[in-house]
Amino acid sequence: MEPTPSFIVRAAQAADADAIAGFNAAMAFETESKRLRAEVLGAGVRRLLAEPGLGFYRVAEAQGEVIACLMVTTEWSDWRNGRFWWIQSVYVQPAWRRRGVFRALYDDVREAALRESDVCGLRLYVEHENTVAQATYRSLGMQQTDYLLFEELKPGVVFLQDDQASSSG
């Protein structure tokens, strides 16, 4: 068996924006068959990288190439007087799946959360049909909650390509 090439986990930098946007586009299509508008997605990635108050990205890198990413945003919980870190925009290149890359990203975020005194937990959402991802999250110690996710988008929000309805997602 060929040894698994090593990779590192690090904070994303502005130079990673195109890779992250590409991963997000691939993830949206792969998991939801949605084609995101590249200009909106790219601007969104660059804005988060430029404004740390919005959240942060972590990436995995192998031999100078970004191979995976995840984004963390926060939610204030008055019940707990603390912040939840929401894990979003998770993507691992297909050739790197099932090789510990997501686990390394998750462990990195979990360890960072433990160092922050007001972070009370980690959360994420997953498609109902994505049973592989659900099994992965359970194996990391995450538990399914009793909550359903509801949303209402502001009129005029357009994030999908013109050939798809942009009122969902």
How would you describe the overall organization of this protein?
With 169 residues, the protein is an alpha+beta fold. It has one domain: 3-Layer(aba) Sandwich (Aminopeptidase). It is 31% helix and 24% strand. The chain is built from 4 helices and 5 strands. A 5-stranded mixed beta sheet has the order 1-2-3-4-5.
Note the topology.
Layout: E1 8-11, H1 17-32, H2 38-50, E2 56-62, E3 65-77, E4 82-92, H3 101-115, E5 119-124, H4 131-139
Parallel strand pairs: 4-5
Antiparallel strand pairs: 1-2, 2-3, 3-4
Question: What are the key terms here?
Answer:
single chain, alpha+beta, acyltransferase activity, transferring groups other than amino-acyl groups, acyltransferase, Bact_Acetyltransf, GNAT family N-acetyltransferase, GNAT_dom
Q: State the low-pLDDT regions, or none.
A: none
Tell me roughly what share of residues is in helical segments: 25-40%
In terms of quaternary structure, the protein is: single chain
Q: What is the domain tally?
A: 1
**Structural class of the helices, strands and pairings?**
alpha+beta
Protein name: GNAT family N-acetyltransferase
Keywords: Acyltransferase, Transferase
Domain N-acetyltransferase: 7-164
InterPro entries: Acyl_CoA_acyltransferase (IPR016181), Bact_Acetyltransf (IPR050832), GNAT_dom (IPR000182)
